[in-house]
Design a protein that fits this description.
The protein is of the alpha/beta class. The protein has a domain of 95 residues. It has a 5-stranded mixed β-sheet with strand order 3-2-1-6-7, covered by helices on one side. Strands 4-5 form a two-stranded antiparallel ribbon. It starts with 12 loop residues before the first helix and ends in a 10-residue tail after the last strand.
Length: 192
């Protein structure tokens, strides 16, 4: 008489497969894309009227990056390392140069009357600009504003901007605004 071979009990295989799936899902790390942290202006309300803001030409400095990653601040060709100092000079306008931004005296709560620069940095680039170059230029512009804020904070409060409490940081932001305009990339390869 032939012996019957015993069957393997497969009822727990589904449980084991499920536990393995859960284990790998929990222990596996996924790459998360990170963006550039920027605070965007609030969305306009549905019935809100769009206002055309006219800005005096002297209050704007244009930073351009072409498709060969050459940089110009105003009409001056520059290297990335020169941008910060040029932006600081432009925004602070220490000698009240009539070709640089004018200042508007504003009453800032907690500070009083203070001359606030009306300067705007306009960043423009070509569609062929390398991402790395664009980010370097953008970082230099933000670095310039942070340097001005640190100088102001050190003079007023004796410590850098990052070390201030929220109320003091709000005062510094009003006294030293971050006005950066980023234009839509242009395709100027065929144009001369």
């Amino acid at each position: 008489m032939a012996r019957k071979t015993p069957d393997i009990n497969a009822s727990s295989q589904a449980d084991i497969a499920f536990l393995l799936l859960v284990f790998f899902l929990i222990t596996t790390t996924m790459d998360v894309d990170k963006g550039i942290p920027r605070k965007l202006p609030p969305m306009p309300e549905d019935q809100q009227q769009q206002e055309d803001i006219k800005i005096n030409r002297r209050n704007i400095v244009v930073v351009k990056i072409n498709s060969q990653d050459r940089i110009m601040v105003g009409s001056t060709p520059v290297d990335v390392s020169q941008i910060k100092d040029m932006i600081v000079e432009f925004l602070t306008n220490p000698n009240d140069d009539p070709t640089k931004p004018e200042k508007e005296v504003k009453n800032i709560q907690g500070l009083g009357s203070y001359p606030v620069s009306k300067g705007v940095v306009s960043l423009q680039n070509d569609k062929g600009t390398l991402y790395n170059t664009y980010i370097q230029v953008q970082n230099e512009i933000v670095r310039a504003i942070n340097e001005i804020r640190d100088q102001f904070s050190t003079q007023r409060y004796g410590k850098k901007y990052a070390q201030l409490d929220d109320a003091q940081q709000k005062i510094v932001k009003e006294a030293i605004p971050q006005n950066i305009s980023e234009a839509e990339p242009k395709d100027v390869k065929g144009k001369k």
